[in-house]
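Structure tokens please, single chain.
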Amino acid sequence: MVVPSKGTRRKRGRADNTDTFTLLAVAAIAAAIVIVLAVKLLPRSGRVQIESDPPAAVGLALQEGTSGAMHLSAKDMLATKRPFLIYGTAWKEDATADLVFQAVHAGFRFIDTACQPKHYNERGVGEGWKMAAGQLGLIREDVFLQTKFTSVSGQDPENMPYDAEASLEDQPKLHDTLKLWAILEGFVGEGKIRQLGISNCYDPKKFRQIYDNVTIKPKVLQNRFHDKKGFDTIGIARMEGMARQKGLTPQTLMYAFMMTLGHTPLSGTKNAGHMQDDVDLMLRFQQGEKILNDDEMETLSSLLGIR
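Here you go.
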């Protein structure tokens, strides 16, 4: 699985250093536990695993919101069982609220954050989506919010989001992952959390250990793939040519490849034009377009060294 990290993302040859790319990837425990916040009527979904069943023949309703903007809903997109994109909010600091506001206006309805102030601004995420929702006439079930619990070892000691000396129930340590998971399972039962997952786990054995020893199984595994891990796509001429033929950039072609495999990419772009490119791709999938055929998928897999 290959995806560019910060840097060189081009719009029909675009280049800037403002974008961040991440993939939600299943199969590959964990520096953080992924939590999807519950909301009444929001279905249990947001899956990133490859589906064995064909997509349901459910059309995506595109309606006009109160502001005249297209009314897209996470609930409706989940109902299609077709691929979607998540807007990632890491490393945006004081610009978080404005960027989330722009992302929701562009059409993103799935948002990822974390309780980790050194990398995320959760308050800004809340301010941004609520402001955009007010203008677009969105309600809570139209927006899918995903956050994470991060242990003390992953926090900035000068900017802790909770009491580092608290009891296990209030602040579990990383090595107590199973105990923490059991606590969070209780919140699922109370309707405070919709689903649970794991991030930053690159050891399949550790993931299996957690999976086999918990009652509520992880719905997602969120991992990063970037050039420092030997994954990069920029500069592959054949990918650039295929992207142009599909009306995509090399980066959105990479998204299309991963979405066709059944994975859910995160786009962390800070560029409004790139946000629109990403949403346009998502809508093509949501409306049932088959962007890549089997031969093209095989070609890309070969180029990327994936078997």
